[in-house]
Every structure is written in C-alpha cells, then in structure tokens.
Amino acid sequence: MPEPIVTDTQPQGLEEKVYLPTAPLLTHFVGRPRGPGAGGQAPPAVQALPAEQMLSNIVLGALIRGFYVSGSGNSRVVCASDISPAELRWAFHQGLNTRGRYEPWAVVLDRTAMWQAGMRPVLYVEDEMENQFRQSTGEIRGPEWAALVVRTSLGQTGRSDWTHEREWRYCFQGDSTNPSLDIRTAVKAVVTGTRGWKPNRTSVFDPEVNLTYSPNYSFERWFWNGSRLVKDGTVTVATPSQDEEDEEERRRQDEDDRLLREHLGLE
C-alpha cells in the first residue's frame, strides 16, 4: 500500500473566523460523548481510538465506515447531523446534552452531495408508532432503511429524546461486507482540535480495509480555538507517483540502515 502524500497550506495574517451557512452542511462527529454502553457495535479497536485517529482514518481513505447503532436493527449506518451553526459551536463549547461537550474533531459534508449519495434524515416517531413506521419505510425503500426510524419521547422526563441531533443516516444492506460511504466529493472541511493538524497514516487501525487514496482530494481545515472555529488553511491528500513511492522506499531503507549501524556501534 503506497503512502499518501499529505500537504497543507497555512493561513496568513490575522485569524479569520469561519462563517457557517445556515443549513447546507452535515457534520459527522468523531468525538461525540457517549454514555456507558453507547458505543454501538463497532469493533473494540475502533471504540478505543482517540477522536483524532478516527478522523485520520476517515480522511486518508475518503470513507466513513458504517456500524450498528442503537435502533438500527440489522443495518449498519453512517450518521451525520444537520445541526445549526450556533449549535455546532455550542457542541464544542458546552455540549448538546448532559453527557458534556464534544471533542473538536469532525468531518463537515455538503448536504446536497450526501442526499445524492443516498443519505436521508431520520424519522423521529412516538414509541407506539415505531413498528408501524419501520414496516412502512422498509416496504417502500428496502428493509435496511427501517433504520431511519428513531423512537423518541419529546418532553417526557427521563425518556429518550434525540431530536436535537437532527440526524441523517445512510443505511447499508444487512449482508454488506465492510460497508463504507465514499465522501471524497462531499467533504467541505474538517474540524480539528490542533492547529495545523494533518492526518497520520500510522493511525489507520484496520489492515483489512483497503484504503484508496484519491488524487486532488482537498478540503478546508477549521481549528477550534476554545471559543470559535477559525480558518486554518487547507489539506490535500493525493496518491503518490511511482517515483515518489520509490523515493520514499529509499528514504525508509536509509533510515533502517542508519539505525542498524547505530545499534552496532558503527556510528
């Protein structure tokens, strides 16, 4: 597997605030706080990853993998949120529920592109209507799309209420192998908690996933400075040429040789 070429540009001059449009973006959070046992059925290795490494995995492959989540039944899903710009800032500053603030690591996606890819807003329904809506949705769109139905109890103390997330889901068929959603043409930006962040190839967690690096795949980088999002340049992930692969291999070999000589006391 060739190493990707990751380049970036740095902003010049004063910090420029990110001015978010009111609606056309979806946010896939990778640092969302979870309650006990709320990690879904993602592999333990995935659940244990820091948010920064999860973001690297997504960016380098231009893919978001689908996992089982609460209420998705036999369908694995990719989730995103249609929250407002004000709520996005509040999520990182204070949080959107009692579980606390979100870590500032996320992928920001073009909503129209995700609609065209097949992602749809979930249906929030009363407890007693859940089965009826699941059956109807499955009959109309296919059984996997019953995972669009989310049971909620708005205004009832101590009951489930997830309407603040304004969630969208892409639902995979139950027999899908390594279900992944290609986001290459949809990524508008990444939110990072480190200024000048670049994805790290060594953080990719699953050797069975065949990552494909996409030429001229670029996006903005938005840095959360503790109080607001500021523009922090752009990031490009590109497929290396054969000459660049050969040069990288020579560089690694030279470094291995140097370490061996150092170990043998020859330097």
Kindly describe this structure.
With 267 residues, the chain is α+β, with helices and mostly antiparallel strands. It has one domain. Helices cover 24% and strands 24% of the residues. The protein contains six helices and 13 strands. A six-stranded mixed beta sheet has the order 1-13-12-11-5-2. Strands 4-9-6 form a three-stranded antiparallel beta sheet, covered by helices on one side. The longest helix has 22 residues, at 242-263. The two termini are 32 Å apart. The model has no long low-confidence stretch (mean pLDDT 80).
Task: Looking at this protein, list some descriptive labels.
267 residues; alpha+beta; 6-stranded mixed sheet; 3-stranded antiparallel sheet; 6 helices; globular
Mean pLDDT: 80
Strand order within the widest sheet?
1-13-12-11-5-2
Proportion in helices: 10-25%
Number of domains: 1
Largest sheet: 6 strands, mixed
Total of DSSP H or I helical runs spanning 4+ residues: 6
Work out the number of β strands.
13
How big a fraction of the residues is strand? 15-25%
Radius of gyration: 21 Å
Distance between the termini: 32 Å
